[in-house]
Structures are given as C-alpha cells and as structure tokens.
Amino acid sequence: MKTNYKFTWPLLASLAIMIMAGLTTTVANAGDMQDAEKLFTQNCAVCHGADRGGYFAPALTKERLSNTSEAAIRSMTSNGISETQMPPWGGKLSTAELRKLSALFKSTSKTKVSFGMEDIKKSLEVYVADESVLPSKPTYPIKDMNDLMGIMARGRYSTGNSRVVFFDGRTNRQVGEIPTTHAPHNMDYHPTNPRWAYVKTDSGYVYKIDLYSMRAVRSIRTGLNGPALAMSRDGRYVMAGSYSPHTAVILDSKTLEPVKFFELKGVDPDGKMVDSDSGMITGTPFADYLV
C-alpha cells in the first residue's frame, strides 16, 4: 500500500520558520548565559551562594527547580516572596535581565567556584596605613566600651546600604555606623584590646574596625560566602571560614594578611571523602584552639 504525502509551499515555509526560530532561541540563550552569571554574582550570590548551590537562601539550580516553570521563577524573582528576606527585584532588574536569570536557574546545575590563597592575598585593602594617627580614646561619649553593641544591617538588597550600626547599650543611643560592601553577618571583639573588632560579611569580606573612631582600617576577602569568624584567645589571629568554596584561612589580626589556608574535607555517612562546609568557627578562652 502506497501513501502519498503532499506538502504545500506555505506548509514548508512555516516549518522552515519554526526550525529557524528554534535555532535562534537556542543560540540566544547560550549567549545570554554569561550575562546571567554576571547578574547572579552581582545581585544574588550573597544569599543563594556563589556556586548557586544555596547558602541561607535556597539553591537556584535545575535540580531544585525542576517542577517550577520559568514564568513562576520570574514572578517570584520580580515580586519577591513574603515573610522571607527575598525582596522584589522587578524595580531593580529589567524584564530582559529577569528572563536571563530564570533561564539560567532552570537549565543549569550549580557551578564549581574557587578562591584560593593568592586570591585572598590580592584582595587585601588598607584604608589607614598608619594606625598611630587614630584617636587614643573613643570620639563619642560612652561610659564603658563593654556597653558597645553592634547591629548587622544587611540592607534591602544585601548591598548598597549595608552597614554595621553601633549603639551604647547603656543609653540606647547610636554612636556610629560603618558601611560594608555586602550584608554583614558576624562580628567578634578583640579579647585584649577594646578598640578593635572584626566584621565578616556574607560575601566573605573581613573588616578590621577601629571602635574608637568608628572606621574600617583594613579589609580582605577570605572566600565567596560564609559567616564563620573567630579570634584566638590572645588576639593574635583571626580565623574565617568560607561556605563557598569550602575553605578556611587564618589571618594576622594586626594586618589581616593570611597566614595559613585550609581546604576543608570530611567523610560522609557512606565513608566517602567530600567537601566540608565551614558553617561556624569558635574560639575558646581556655586554650589556643580555633574549632
């Protein structure tokens, strides 16, 4: 039995247009991925993790979002999510940028990121080279430096207006504030010198803070994400952990220069060696340990 299929020119033309449109979309999407990765790094990585594998906000990968449409992803990104720290990005990012991001989240897995010892060394910034010019006592009225209380102000988009705000805990008066590049998360005070404090941001920066003048004197990036921060009991060292990538570094507390770098690994329940997150670091006053 012979079957004849008749194709008309309009039908063939329509098929050709559909095929070309599909190819054009594929090429455009591939070209947009680099832009989307840059947008993610600039706007989303501080909360969702530099590798998109999740931090204190969830992962933005094809595995996690397999049952969520791109339209739904765009809607959540544009409008924000109530009762969470996810703000609306519709007024900050364009529709085209939101489309690029939703396509990235829907079609790709988390990425492999790195930030090693050389990257850390290169990130050191010195704002006050000669610390002898700093005031010898607080420049604001306070009865006892132990009354000083620091509040981490993340900012609406975790950047731009992120800062640490300081109050006199005895009077509840604000005595100063220090801006940070991204959302500050953790702070530790120097155990032997009341003028110094160290602030860690969710984007991995550590700031050395002069509490007398309320200004940052140095900063260094110790990783791409992670709140972990602690001081040795003698005040000589600061240790900072990175959630992404999975590393930790010991810094000289005076200069913030890196002294020792660690790649963190551990054994999972199946006995396999895997990367280990640096969720928290703790110092103890009873011995020279950082855990």
List keywords for this structure.
5 helices; 23% helix; 5-stranded antiparallel β-sheet; alpha+beta; 4-stranded antiparallel β-sheet; 2 domains; 25% strand; single chain; Methanol Dehydrogenase, Chain A
Describe what this molecule looks like in 3D.
This protein is an alpha+beta fold. The protein has helices at 9-43, 45-48, 70-79, 95-107, 117-122; strands at residues 125-126, 148-153, 163-168, 173-179, 184-189, 196-201, 205-210, 215-221, 229-231, 237-242, 247-252, 258-263, 265-267, 273-275. It is built from five helices and 14 strands. It is 23% helix and 25% strand. Helix 1 crosses helix 4 and helix 3 (70-79) crosses helix 4. The chain has two domains: 9-107, Cytochrome Bc1 Complex, Chain D, domain 2 (Orthogonal Bundle); 117-275, Methanol Dehydrogenase, Chain A. The radius of gyration is 25 Å and the shape is globular. The chain has a five-stranded antiparallel β-sheet. Strands 9-10-11-12 form a four-stranded antiparallel β-sheet.
Note the topology.
Layout: H1 9-43, H2 45-48, H3 70-79, H4 95-107, H5 117-122, E1 125-126, E2 148-153, E3 163-168, E4 173-179, E5 184-189, E6 196-201, E7 205-210, E8 215-221, E9 229-231, E10 237-242, E11 247-252, E12 258-263, E13 265-267, E14 273-275
Antiparallel strand pairs: 1-8, 2-3, 3-4, 5-6, 6-7, 7-8, 9-10, 10-11, 11-12, 13-14
Helix pairs in contact: 1-4, 3-4
